[in-house]
Design goal:
Blueprint lengths: L2 H13 L4 H13 L1 H19 L7 H16 L6
Helix pairs in contact: 1-3, 1-4, 2-3
The structure holds zinc ion (ZN).
Amino acid sequence: MTCTDFLAKLTDFFDGTVPPELLAEVEEHIAECHHCEVVLDSTTKTINIYRNQELYDFPPELQHRLEASIMARCFGPRPTK
Ligand SMILES: [Zn+2]
């Protein structure tokens, strides 16, 4: 699993729709990738706040922010045209 795959599965992971074999891949990836581990940890905290407020809905802008931040960390800043 790559960081891109991890991000693609992140919403499913929190929806609880991840099959066990994929869950194992996710856990294997975060064991090896500190960046994704941090992302998962901070996302979990954010979602817990949403859930506590009974306003749980994974916001698309959060997904984009996470993606941008992890891509920057793992692959460096993207060149701008
Ligand atoms: Zn990663």
